[in-house]
Amino acid sequence: xxxxxxxxxxxxxxxxxxxxxxxxxxxxxxxxxxxxxxxxxxxxxxxxxxxxxxxxxxxxxxxxxxxxxxxxxxxxxxxxxxxxxxxxxxxxxxxxxxxxxxxxxxxxxxxxxxxxxxxxxxxxxxxxxxxxxxxxxxxxxxxxxxxxxxxxxxxxxxxxxxxxxxxxxxxxxxxxxxxxxxxxxxxxxxxxxxxxxxxxxxxxxxxxxxxxxxxxxxxxxxxxxxxxxxxxxxxxxxxxxxxxxxxxxxxxxxxxxxxxxxxxxxxxxxxxxxxxxxxxxxxxxxxxxxxxxxxxxxxxxxxxxxxxxxxxxxxxxxxxxx
Length: 322
Known about the structure:
It is a single chain. Helices cover 42% and strands 19% of the residues. It is an alpha/beta fold. It folds into two domains: 10-173, Thiamin diphosphate (ThDP)-binding fold, Pyr/PP domains (Rossmann fold); 187-321, Rossmann fold, CATH 3.40.50.920. Strand 6, helix 8 and strand 7 form a beta-alpha-beta unit. Helix 1 packs across helix 8.
């Protein structure tokens, strides 16, 4: 995959497609928590003002109203910052959307420390752990513009609630406009033989940079975009591990209860391999330049290179010992 500089953040690409989708489904409605110019949901509101509801800075109330609309048979997208959707409104999401398994989809912006400059209050670094725990909730994280556009249909066509984790700023594009995605899917974006690196969202690009550096070091890394976090693609993961025999997960989230915890538990039962996991080490991040924050908290490509090298050495030592 070739990384090309992106012009749009995933939050904007999703919102643009959301507006287009509104023309195909007259019952489709959008709810907002007073940050429509940040989530770009205002694009839908300008086009369909009678199907757009700004509920103010009150995420729990917004989610409750969205649940009521969905209970009447409509498909709903509720928009907001991930840190507030996944915590401030969590009990309402759990009891009034996930429990009755309603068709409310979430455009969740500012995932992880992609909201670096906005500080800890707006950095959703616990959201994956929160929402993946909820029964009936599906969770996806598009990495680029075309993936984000496709996630509108993925979310709408997936029964029940779906949490779409979007990023604050444009980073890179790797997918073509005709690329297809599905709940429970993933993409092998770089083939390799020595180690599997699994990531999603923004850290996928750090993983691809790391894989190129690893190649120059003589290590062949396979990189998987695990864009569907719940459910995740077990078959592709197992197929990759059969080939590489080692796994590194890198994610813009707390290590605890992130995707890495899920994959580690899965591998212990199904395919034990040398393993490591990069994420926030039981700490909050801080406000600052996005790339500097990534590097300080161990999420940049150079940290991925170091961790991958250590895992490969561990695998080689185990093979030699055997």
